Amino acid sequence: MTRPTPETLAHTARRARASAEPAADVDQTAARTPASPATPAVRPTVPAQVSGAGSLVRSLEALGVDVVFGIPGGAILPAYDPLYDSTVRHILVRHEQGAGHAATGYAQATGKVGVCIATSGPGATNLVTPIADAYMDSVAMVAITGQVARASIGTDAFQEADIQGITLPITKHNFLVQTAEEIPQVLAEAFHLASTGRPGPVLVDIPKDVLQAPTTFTWPPTLDLPGYRPTLHPHGKQIREAARLMAAARRPVLYVGGGVLKAGATDGLRRLAELTGIPVVTTLMALGAFPDSHRQHLGMPGMHGTVAANYGMQKADLIVALGARFDDRVTGKLDSFAPDATVVHADIDPAEIGKNRHAHVPIVGDARHVIDELIAAVTVERSTGRGTDLGDWWTQLDDLRNRYPLGYEEPADGTLSPQYVIKRLGEIVGSDAIFVAGVGQHQMWASQFISYEKPYTWLNSGGLGTMGYAVPAAMGAKVGMPDTVVWAVDGDGCFQMTNQELATCALEGIPVKIAVINNGNLGMVRQWQTLFYDERYSNTELGTHKHRIPDFVKLAEALGCVGLRCENADDVDKTIAAAMEINDAPVVIDFVVGKDAMVWPMVAAGTSNDEIMFARGVRPVFDEDDI
Q1: Where are the beta strands (DSSP E) in 406-512?
Q2: What are phi and psi of 18, to 5 degrees?
Q3: Which whole number is the average pLDDT over 224-245?
Q4: What pLDDT is recorded for position 45?
Q5: Catalytic residue selected from 96, 182, 352, 373
Q6: Is 524 a residue of the active site?
Q7: Dihedrals φ, ψ of 286, to 5°?
Q8: What number is the average pLDDT over the span 112-121?
Q9: How far is Cα 483 from Cα 473, in angstroms, rounded to an integer?
Q10: 602 annotated active-site
Q11: Is 182 in the active site?
Q12: Known catalytic residue: 147?
């Protein structure tokens, strides 16, 4: 096939300007910072007569936006004219869902606010899934949608939808702009709301006639957000009580959630863990916040977590939750979760504290400040001689780690093991790359068999579990971190939902790499049918094995990518190496794997974490006399 190159692609002026900017000679993973308040630029601008659309684009420029993902349409079309001459790069996606997930991936990888644009009606409603996804995973995103003219709102006009009402439950806040004059203020407030406190998506809906109306653009605007004052610094009394409990506990656990990554608190977390010697578990959303290889890391807790992590949580006498929300996939049957544990719960969102599990010591605050102040308070406790020997606790946990390590069995039918593929991918690519997963078995295997040593190197749809997330999110991550290798680990089911964005990647010069774990089925659903539905495989076979429809190699080539296929273990390493050598086009590898592999360990939905199965028919044996 002929690969697209910069010489053969019709790059726009915006693309040319963006490509001409020199890349900073730094470790981009290390340089990534959490989302910072998007306050208006200090330098005032000279008032200018523009349209509402011109005011919108100038506001984006003033807010430091470098890229937006979107598709034009009738209601939003006025905004695309000034965007044509803007310094803001616009990436034309193939579906609005792709724009939303790309904005999310960009935000998760860079710490900046991700921006997506769509037109009214179906364009806006196609953003609902990525907006809900960003809301569940607390991602700073601003979605800008066109709306029918104000006089037509409520008349069931062509391509009208009440997107403000539709997204009310899944946005941190949303706006329906009423006049062109308020556009700068609304945009500044939207970015501030999205990126401060607990991050989240904000929708800005702008009627077409507002975009067309004349106005005077001035900057900076004045923010008017009465009542919005996120608590960043925790209460000192609560910190001291938490430190006292940590010093006295005999079986403590640090339960780390994605909020630690949002706050940029990973260095502090490591200092706190090493100061106290307390075991650490990291949720699916927090992988990389604490090095997987660190001796104190027990792994991921919950439904597909490690035996040691689940045992540690269940038998703990103290759980210190940092930026986590006691999700059902972590706790299992809630009333049986960690029955003897005192709970310290620190979160920037007070609504999360006590929502699922009573907190004996509630701490409202930003995780970075909470952890820094805990370090100081624990240091004071230790200076007075207070502290508990955790030797017996670690003896129990180490015994479980040794007896029940993460592993897998090779398929009995000789097919390629998906776990082996993913394990080798992580080992060959290394810990500096960003891995983006879809949803299902491949997501769990990627969380288990790739070692995440650095923060912001693992992106996935944790809360909503959105199939189709991986390809566009990887695209957004690569746009934000162009000098970092980005791999999407996707399933054959997920991949077919959003792979059209590979055309965007090919034409825009975004060389992502996609590992399709092709087991011919909706794998996780099939696993549940095997375990709980007497192997009655109703509508889970996709035909990608039996009929090779689609042929992923041919599909990749049709979308302007390089397509490779691997069907046996002997070829895994050289296929991955071949993909790593290609940096001028997106690459898709079709890893044809066995259909019967399962994700273990597993806690069945609705059951207690005490009932964790290490493998099919194998339940761990816990020595209660040691506790």
Answers
A1: 434-437, 458-459, 486-491
A2: -65, -40
A3: 96
A4: 80
A5: 96
A6: yes
A7: -115, 5
A8: 98
A9: 16
A10: no
A11: no
A12: no
Which residue, 494, 497, 516, 493, is CA-closest to 586?
516
Give residue 24's pLDDT band: very low, low, confident or very high (50, 70, 90). very low
Q: Residue 33 — very low, low, confident or very high, per pLDDT cuts 50/70/90?
A: low
Active-site choice (208, 315, 423, 513):
208
**550 prior amide bond cis, ω within 30:** yes
DSSP β-ladder status, 361-364 and 342-347: parallel
Q: In whole numbers, what is the pLDDT of the chain averaged over residues?
A: 93
CA dihedral 374, 380, 386, 390 (to 10 degrees): 40
Asked if pLDDT for residue 197 goes beyond 90, the answer is: yes
Catalytic, out of 61, 159, 355, 453: 159
Angle CA(69)–CA(501)–CA(60) in degrees, nearest 5?
A: 5
Confirm whether 300 is a catalytic residue: no
Q: How far is CA 532 from the centre of its chain?
A: 30
Residues 6+ apart with CB under 8 A from 179: 210, 213, 215
Tally DSSP H helices, then E strands, for the chain.
Answer: 25, 20
Give dist(CA 234, CA 365) in Å, integer: 5
- Distance in angstroms (rounded) separating the CA atoms of residues 532 and 252: 35
The residue type of 1 is M
Show Cβ contacts of residue 403 under 8 Å, excluding neighbours closer than 6 positions: 307, 620
In this structure, what token pair is assigned to residue 218?
Answer: 């001035």
The pLDDT score that the predictor gives to residue 17 is 32
Catalytic residue among 1, 158, 554, 574: 158
Q: Is the peptide bond before 220 cis (omega within 30 degrees of 0)?
A: yes
The active-site residue out of 467, 524, 598, 602 is 524
Angle between helices 96-110 and 470-480 (to 10 degrees): 50
Q: Which pairing describes strands 141-147 and 173-176: parallel, antiparallel, or unpaired?
A: unpaired
Q: Over 60: is that where the pLDDT of 36 sits?
A: no
* Gap between the Cα atoms of 136 and 461, Å rounded: 9
- Under 8 Å between Cβ of 511 and 487: no
Q: What is the pTM of this model?
A: 0.93
Under the banding of pLDDT at 50, 70 and 90, the label for residue 42 is low
Query: How far is 303 from 310, CA to CA, in rounded Å?
Result: 9
pLDDT classification of 5: cutoffs 50, 70, 90: very low
- Residue with tokens 């977390």, as numbered in its chain: 269
**For the segment 402-426, what is each residue's pLDDT rounded down to a tens digit?**
999 999 999 989 999 999 999 999 9
Of the candidates 554, 550, 544, the residue with the CA atom closest to the CA atom of residue 588: 554
As a whole number of angstroms, the distance between CA 550 and CA 539 comes to: 17
Q: Are 171 and 201 in contact (CB under 8 A)?
A: yes
Angstrom distance (rounded) from CA 517 to CA 536? 23
Q: Is residue 451 within 8 Å of 294, Cβ to Cβ?
A: no
Q: Is there a contact between 193 and 158 (Cβ–Cβ < 8 Å)?
A: no
Locate 102 and state its tokens. 């790309």
Q: What is the pLDDT of residues 157-178, one digit of tens each?
A: 999 999 999 999 999 999 999 9
Instruction: Give residue 427's pLDDT.
Output: 98
CA-closest candidate to residue 182, choices 207, 159, 156: 207
